[in-house]
Amino acid sequence: MAGQNRSVSTVPIRESAVMRAHKLQRFGHAYGIKFERIAVIGPVSPDSYTSGSCKAWTSTLQLKIAGVQIARIDVGHSMRWRERAIREVRDELDRFLNYPMVQDIKLGQYGTYDGKKCRFEWEGNLSDLGIEPASAGFQHEMAETYATSGKVNIQSRLSLDGQHPAVDVTFARTSALAFRGFKIGYSQVQLSSLSTALSEAIRKGLQWDRKKVIITQIWQAGGFTHLVAGGAQAKVEIEATAKGSVPTFNFADPSLDLNVVAERSMSYCAVGQSQVEPYFNVHRLREIDVGVWQLYKYGLR
Strands 12-13 and 68-80, how do they pair? Predict the structure, then answer.
């Protein structure tokens, strides 16, 4: 066996397969077989992964027995567009995407957050524990547009009579994002009063897992359009089909009877979703003094 050196070509595989590789590594240690991660290379060409993925890299594992390399195994990993969208919005807008947006979320909802998979597992609401978070009210109704910097072009087309306005959205990168909000604003809890209420509940015996996060801010939108490119030349055309003149064209306004009339290489299109909650923020509780707890914003850079 000594002196043999075999290579296994790199192929993109799901994260679960990467986890299996780590389990194999731990198994090998128990029997004197040593796996060493010797390199992380990438990103690889977009042609090497399927539509819906957005970033890929490979980890090279080196298999040794008695100090002699007998194989190299390259393990690839690709990130899905959903995960990339959540990470981009988190880093650029300091908020989390609510996927799917039809998911009902409420202030005071708590659960755990898996940062590697960008997933929340909700367990309940503070009201179930006898704690009612006080709301600071609804803030700043507005129209809002977000697009991946330098990778999205949004071009409106308006007729002289105002009939059937349209917008063309083109993308220059796989998994580039374009969001449009109509009558969007947010509600949030009063953090100081909630920190006090949680501290009091813990002193009275509430068993609280410090890993739990709590929804403290929710964005609500009267209408929302959400676009994710599936290729480097993706494009979508959205048209208002409502009868009559449209004095102000917002391609997230559900009252305009928006319709996708053409699209190319799109991973996801949701146009004119009505009364949704596209974003939220969470806080986590930490003890700053004996018996004194404070909420701090969690998961954002």
Answer: parallel
Do 252 and 285 belong together in one domain? yes
Least confident of 12-16, 168-172, 248-252: 12-16
- At which residue do the structure tokens 């704690």 appear? 131
Long-range contacts of 253-258 (CB under 8 A, 24+ apart): 253/182, 253/222, 253/223, 254/182, 254/222, 254/223, 255/223, 258/225
Q: What's the burial of 27, exposed, middle or buried (CB within 10 Å: 0-12/13-18/19+)? A: exposed
Residue-range definition of the domain harbouring residue 213:
94-297
Q: Is 194 helix (H, G, I), strand (E, B) or coil?
A: helix
**DSSP string of 121-146, one letter each residue:** EEEEEGGGGT--PPEEEEEEEEEEEE
Say whether both 21 and 166 belong to one domain. Answer: no
The pTM for the full model equals 0.72
